[in-house]
Amino acid sequence: MSSVNDNPARIISQAEWSTPSVRYGVRSLQLLLLVGLLVFGLGPILWLAKSAVTPTNDTITHPIALFPHGFAWSNLHEAWSNVDVARYFWNTVFIAFGSWLTQLVVATTGGYVLAVLRPKYARFVKGLLLATLFVPAVVLLVPLYVEIVRLPIVHHSLINSYWAVWLPAGASAFNVILVTRFFDNLPREIFEAARVDGAGPFMLFWRIVLPMSKPILGVVSVFAVLASWKDFLWPLLVLANPDIQPLSVRLPSIQSQTELGVFLAAMFIACLVPIFGFVLFQRSFLRGSGLGGALKG
Amino acid sequence: MGLVEATPAATRGSERRLPRRTPLTWVRNGGLSTLVFLLPLLFVFGAFSWYPIVRTVVMSLQHTNLVQPATWVGLQNFRAVIHDPLFPTAVKNTAYFAGLALVFGYPIPLIAAVLMSEVRKRRGIYSALAYLPVVIPPVVAVLLWKTFYDASSTGVFNTILGWVHIAPQPWLQSQSTAMPSLVLESTWANAGATMIIYLAALTSVNSELYEAAAVDGAGILRKIWHVTLPQLRGVLLVTMILQIIGTAQVFLEPYLFTSGGPANSTLTVLLLIYNYAFGNSLGGDYGKATALSLMLALFLALFSWIYLRATRSWSTE
Amino acid sequence: MKSTRRTTCVAVAVGCLLIVCATAAGATSSAKAVTISVASLIPGSSAAAVQQFNQQVAQFEKANPNIKVQPVEYQWTAPTFAAKLAAGTLPTVFEVPFTDARTLGENGQLANLTSFVKKLPYYSKYNPAVLAEGTTSKGKIVALPKGAYAQALHYNRKLFQQAGLNPNKPPTTWGQVITDAKIISQKTGKTGYAEMAKSDNTAGWILTTVVYSLGGRMETGSGAKAKATLSNPLTVQALNMLKKMRWGDNSMGSNFDMGWSDINQQFAAGNIGMYVSGSDVYTNLVQASSIDPSIYGLAPIPLSKSKNAGVLGGGTLVSVKPNANAAQKAAAVKWIDFFYEQPLVSKPQAVRNAQTLVANKQPVGVPALPIFNLKQYTLANTWIKPYINVPLGQMKPFTTGVFKQKLIPEPAVSTQSVYHALDPVVQAVLTDKNADVESLLEQANSVAQSAISSGA
Fold this sequence. Notes:
The complex is a heterotrimer. By secondary structure, chain B is an all-alpha fold. Chain B has 15 helices and two strands.
């Protein structure tokens, strides 16, 4: 936050701020913004939280009323155990963990080669990586699916295997470029010094480069986990077996057979991890987002 | 696959400088360990990015449904897509979605970010609140809003409208209001990210520019108009391009909200691709699906190019 | 070598099959254990329904110790089936509608079961028309019937009562449907008449049903030369009825994007006065939505006076994955025999099946159409009579009426594509007051015609 937060405001100068009309005018506009953010930004989430513990009937007949007939804590329990949200929740966690790991491994090792080791062919690889930025994700959908159904060479199907989600997740050019740029800016004298001390490339990577890159690894990690938590279409296609599906895939398919209150409770549970993660790692979230939204594509 | 391409380039490169290098010296100089480090990247990108991109081109020229062997059909898939009566509908709807998303989601985050940048205490609360919807899983966001959009008079939004004596709206249940409803949700879900981008850019504007403008006697609004906005030009372009690239591939909203209905009024290009590939219960038409993907990709490559140019100049500025 | 092993497997399997059929008790054999996955219930079914299914699996495994059965939840919907088919993620035994089995079979996407099926003792008793739905043009049997339905009018007796209508006298003409729907919506505030209108072909399916009942057809001719006749005066009439209920009477509620599951859910929750769906839907209303049986009423589809008017009938077939090996195919046919067919042809199995269902509070005696013949159907119903737990009295209008109705099969060529072409037309009428029915139908007709001509 610090970079965003502590900078003094500058459009309005100190002199202008001393004028009461400016101060109160701007402040009331800002208050209006705060109310707007609370109502429109937070409102829907609060409604979800409220309805998750409200009896279904009340939610249907009086959607806005606050607990006209008390609470229904049973919704949460029902969702967690009877609708099996627990299982899908842990599936989601497991998928996110694997995707995070592959993305981190690919981005750090790749970035290390491109920025630190810099072999002659690094430019060529970089060019190929940049080229993939031109290709929207949609192009990969069908051929990637066909490939997963029947892998070339080994002729094996990865359908219903978490590898089908983890491995393609690793192919994020944005991650690699982000990490490469960060590594590029690390002081090269340290690498030289380590080399003189006899550190091999593995030692250099593990002992010097990685420990120095915690901020960027934090950003990549946060977005890797968040992207995996949000993903829908790809896991829908490749994880056909309901027992292994993540929450985002499972929620739409159980909707029509689940009581509304219980369903809202299930959705609420699905939001908890990202919300808590956001509160804990706000800094990495906002910093990553400020990087020109480069990770969005 | 990437390996095969990368290695000759490497040797070619080294031959130029050290003509008498042998594989052994290459290994000794760390060439092998470099390659080992590069393996994860080459494997993952080779198998799950570069290879499928090539496959798209191949498949778009074939007739294939994974059951019978593929046959070459030339440009027939492209012709079939262009002559599909749903193709212009999908293009029109996607453009409509993208346009509405720009109208809803472009000016408001900018105004909000400018106001936020002048918050002197607890700015963190503002940015956290603005960003919160972005972390909600999109599936949850869509299904939640689908509940809000219940068209009966006791639906969430219709209840609220009832307070101010506005008649219940059909939301997703009418051809004219379905698409704006989709965009409204998508704006809610995404505006926070745009706002944070603006905020980061606003705080990096050189404050001397404001001071200089103040010396020239500029008021607050004139400072915004003559300093802030020109300084944000690059970011504004980037967010617009990002938004166009994102909205041109919109899938989740029409898929989960309306399945493209009512009467194809929310059928988007990506949903059409999905329907070609997976919508027919007798088997998919992967040729048409990849042909349409390629057409969309070529269109978007233009925007990606602008994006890359813009970010490059913006980050070096 | 491969082929010899294959034949022995078949021989052993067929041997097992015969023993099971003869004794219906535990068959022990030295055959190697084989595992098959089978379609169980649709996602979101109640715990009791799942338990009932698992008990059936246990009974089957006890009788066939060398077969291991893995239940997989399953629901056929048009937009989700193709991906499963392509990815090979279907269970070994799965269900497809009448509309698709033959084409899938012609394309080699279903296993050839001919040799196994011909050995079933009741093979010759199948209704030839029904068996034909699962037989390819070359005479390969690729699917066995699970059940057949006729479209029916489901209505909420409680809402009829509340609206001052006689729940024992459901509407017998479309005119009455329209007036009753108006009365129900005005008196109770609930939806008088609802219709599926989702883009998953259900909208077209129901519209076709209504057009059939008025005497219209969606196709003439057969094969690639078939002609789409979506745009005909009776379709226009059917859509105008919808238009009147939606925009004139406002008796259709506010949700116009319901699919099969959604409309069942809404009906079971007591929010819908009347709707059209297959006669066997009651099972789902219990399994997935725990309907209160006292509100349920079942009537035949109102038919117009036209001599072509008839009720649309369809059904579900059971198929086997094309890449199943011989042992799996044999085991799969055994499961199909045990789970789907025996309860219809064998008294002990019918009784045991009914007992399991009743013990788990699952419906027994839901009206369907015979897949063998009427005599067998009536006979099987007498076996389970003591166990029937569905409100048969409330289904009487249908059970007495349906056999007087002319049964018309679904459009024969590119059925799902024809339905899909009709989906947006139905949606347009329900969501746009000024929808131009004629030109929408013209457009749908050309879409359907190109699907028919290209065999999609």
